[in-house]
From TrEMBL:
Classification via Gene3D superfamilies: UbiA prenyltransferase
Segments of this protein annotated with the region Disordered: 1-25
Keywords in alphabetical order: Membrane, Transmembrane, Transmembrane helix
GO cellular component: membrane
Pfam families for the chain: UbiA
Domain of life according to the entry: Bacteria
Record-annotated membrane-spanning stretches: 184-203, 209-229, 254-273, 279-296, 303-325
Subcellular location: Membrane
Membrane topology, as annotated: Multi-pass membrane protein
Protein name in UniProt: UbiA family prenyltransferase
GO molecular function, one term: transferase activity, transferring alkyl or aryl (other than methyl) groups
InterPro entries, alphabetized: UbiA_prenyltransferase, UbiA_sf
């Protein structure tokens, strides 16, 4: 600070203090975590509350990808790949392609439905609950799809085309066909394409037997009915009128066992030769599970979807125990 001086009037004048020099400033500064320098004098400080945001985003993305169907479809496809005789490296590629494809489908579904879910006050979805932004879910969906394409074609051009057909059908369901009477078609196409994706990745690129493709399509229709059944009333309130919504919950519960048991019958009776005891027992078990899901679904509609998943798992076990995917059969 400069020294005071005496002016002509005799009064002592105190000028404003000069700003401290760089060496006079205190070296003690508050603790801060610098993540980005926006300018020469601007730094973004991350508070303890903000440091947990990435973890919350990851958790919200995990909840938006429909983890239940993702795990079931990916695990069943991996089991098909192993028992079909794919090499370990090819099995990993097959599983990775299905995993990324399912991620893209689930995120696309939640991102596209976000506006309707928010408008109707629907809870239970991370986007509708405000845990994550729609833009971020769309980004994740497109990123997963971008990974799915090369992973699919890594199994061969024919196999890649089959799997991407399944993924494209699922995206068409999310973006358009969900609210039409053709809502069952993407499920049928996608489930039928999965065994084709596995077999076309084998040497010689064989197609699965016709009864395998038909059983996959029927399982897809059953999965669609069981998946939509718990949400029919809410979908009708938001203007979604797909095939199950047009039928109504009571008719869907009665119809649900038909495609599931028919698929089981094809898998048990389709292979050449007489069906064995295991095949007949699995067919009877699938029928009992499907009927039980229909009965229990009157009180707890989620039971119908659980029954559909159980029958799908049983059908895959039936398919594998019956000699694989029937490649080369007709």
């Amino acid at each position: 600070m400069r020294l005071p001086y005496v002016g002509r009037s005799g009064w002592t004048q105190q000028p404003f203090p000069a700003p401290p020099t760089r060496h006079q400033r205190s070296p003690v500064r508050p603790f801060r975590i610098v993540t980005r320098r926006a300018g020469p004098y601007d730094r973004r400080v991350v508070t303890p509350e903000q440091s947990t945001i990435p973890a919350r985003k990851v958790s919200a993305l995990a909840g938006s990808c429909h983890p239940g169907p993702l795990v079931v479809v990916t695990a069943l496809t991996a089991a098909l790949a192993v028992t079909a005789g794919q090499e370990p490296g090819r099995c990993l590629l097959t599983t990775g392609a299905v995993l990324t494809g399912q991620l893209s489908i689930g995120w696309c579904n939640d991102a596209f439905d976000a506006r309707r879910d928010i408008a109707t006050g629907r809870r239970g979805k991370p986007v509708a609950d405000g845990a994550i932004e729609v833009r971020e879910v769309w980004t994740a969906a497109w990123a997963a799809l971008a990974l799915c394409v090369p992973l699919s074609f890594a199994n061969g051009w024919a196999a890649g085309a089959a799997h991407l057909t399944a993924v494209a059908a699922a995206w068409a369901y999310d973006l358009r066909l969900k609210a039409t009477r053709w809502s069952w078609a993407p499920y049928a196409v996608s489930f039928a394409a999965l065994p084709a994706f596995v077999t076309l990745g084998l040497p010689g690129r064989p197609w699965p037997a016709w009864w395998v493709l038909a059983a996959g399509a029927l399982l897809g229709v059953g999965a669609h009915l069981g998946n939509v059944l718990p949400d029919i009333r809410g979908d009708l309130a938001t203007g979604v009128r797909g095939w199950p919504q047009r039928l109504g919950p009571d008719r869907v519960r009665l119809l649900l066992p038909v495609p599931l048991v028919t698929a089981s019958a094809l898998l048990a009776l389709g292979p050449a030769g007489q069906p064995g005891t295991r095949q007949l027992a699995a067919l009877a078990g699938a029928g009992l599970i499907a009927v039980a899901g229909t009965v229990l679904g009157r009180r707890r509609e989620r039971a119908a979807f659980a029954a559909a998943v159980a029958v799908a798992v049983l059908d895959v076990a039936l398919l594998l125990s019956g000699g694989g995917l029937g490649t080369g059969a007709s």
